[in-house]
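Sharing a chain and its predicted structure for anyone who wants a worked example. Both blocks are below, sequence first, tokens second.
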Amino acid sequence: MGLFITEGGVAGHMNHLYDNPDLTFREMKQVFLAASNGELKGTEKTDGQNLQLSYDIKTSSARAARNKGNIKDGGMDAAGLAAKFGGRGALETAFTEAFAAFEAAVGRMSIEEREEVFGPNTNVYYNAEVQDPRAANLINYDLPTLTIHRVGHNEFDRETGSATDRDVSKNARKLAAALDRVQGEREEGRFYVQMNAIKKLEALSDDTAANLAIARLEKALSNAGISDNQTVGAYTVSRVAEMVDKRILLPDLVKKELLKRIFKEKGANIRSVLAMVSKEDAGTIEAIRELVADATKLKFNAIAPVEEIVHDFSVEMLRGLHSAFILDNDAEVERLRQETARAITAIENSGSEEAIEILTKQMSKLKDVEGVSTAAEGFVFDYDGVTYKFTGNFAPMNQLLGLFKYGRGNVPPLEKVDEDIDIDIGTDIRRTVAIIPGGFKPPHKAHLAMVMHYANRSDVVYIFISPLPRGAAADEAEVTFSQSKQIWKLYLAAAGLTNVEVIERPSTNNSPVNSAYEFSENKKDEPFLAQVGDRILLGASQKEDDNGVPDWHRFKNADRYVREGAIIGNVEENASPSFFGNLSGTDFRQTLYRGDTEDLKQRFIPNGDASPAGTLPMVDPREVLAVFGIETEEPTMESILTSLVNEIINERKEKKYMEMDGLQDGTVGSDEGEELEEISTAGGHGGQPGSVEGGGRPVDKDEEPSLIREKEVVVERVLNYLLQQKGLQHG
């Protein structure tokens, strides 16, 4: 078909062999043979905490980065890093001590070396791993070490925060040489900074494993009609095309466009596919939508046969691989086997179908606990300019132990259940709470549809809004927290969502995602936050970014941040659909800036739109636009009433001033006149015509009716009517 797949690895990113769409199967076979013969050079893959590190030449201090914002700001210093991980116990200690060790080591380099390695303006960042026995993940390392990897280093553009294309491998080699020179002897209990050592993957005793892998691969290729000279990408496309044919027969052009969308070719989207189908063909339209929604699953299932082959070969290659960071590798392997066995037993006895399904899937890879044969996470190597990894059975072991320790979906942490925590699997959930974090500057109808999606699945929904304003760009209107909150209240009232609450107080944490984690953890056992027996749904969508990563993926590690006795619901399974063509807050702000009220009404403000979450309410666009100070030609009832009230007040003030200045006949300047005016202001408007309830002067029969009084009566009656319609009473 000539279809080009845009997904896959780039230089510096660690791929499995089946992750690179450009790798031919002839090359994959060559890798199998090279590994089997002991010809692969690489480094140990470690199980630590990732950190990007650089050095500021001007201030002579180290810098750390976790995101683009950090890069643009010139990186975090020691205080910034400590604040980032403050309150995280051993993790905070690990990061701050490793950072200090790095700063001290680089400080012993010459000024010229520092500039060569890091650039004149904190330009080059190095991919590092913090390995600390006090903050272990799965593998228990013996020695606190800051390991700088051989790959993943980048020069960054400080203005954009994005990586440049410049090769920094020469810089990395200079850093490695300098560290070897300045480090000195390792001190017990203190972090040692080093570049990951290069080693050879030991050869197998014979080519049995390689030949078996090649034979299985040839069978898989034959079944798919793929040759050795074709790529992993071509294989995946062929398999997905076959899956599409099994679900629905489409014309070739339609199928080709659909495959482009599934594989995220530039310019391809669901609209371009549906445009080729008759609007009356509801069955085909629905089938196409389902296939697009299942895109990730289709690609996963397509590559599964090749993934299994590569996995089994990797297990054989890593069998007996020793970690350089563990003193007694055999003892650590035995510990991991015992932990895994305990997890398997707990899952088998859990009574949870979801847990058993996960166990079955992972055991198809692990086979049995004897499959845990190394204390190293994996091996990283380069082939033809691309970085790959062998991870063997670390992945299935990690999945099982993660389920055991942290739970998943509707399955609570089984380790805690085993310790008699008072929660039964799937039966003792007291309430379901959805947490929906976001910028929401401003919220639009897709956001409301997402909230409705979670409101249908939860007892209560909390919306967390970032406190920071958005709209710094020259072509965008600025939107504040207060404005976002006001609009949310309009939406929720119109939708009648009584189980949804907007958090009134702006979070002290600028990241609403971190606020969601803080809710789940509830370290201080506060009554408002997550409680024992809570099932927590973290709000996210299936919307994918430019790299094809779905929005829900940001919560992939959420299980680590949940209090004892609560569980995190399966984020992927509960993720909301992507509504209304991936609307964005940026588009909303730009349209606000242009003042295009019609576009705002049609595209962004809920107006009775149909959605998978239910029909959206009709929200008065004038009320939404009024939040931003935009007046429409058609005034709202509230604005009319406000205008009338203000007019009455102004007329009353004018009359009062005229009396005080002696410009009007009557009780000019007398105490009696002033008192009567005050009583009139406070009095009611019932009783006999020409009288004021609560006191006041009688009105002469021949006196002309007061314009102020007539307006007051009208306003009062209209206001009472409107409030009665809303179930309230003006008193």
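Comments welcome. The mean pLDDT is 80.
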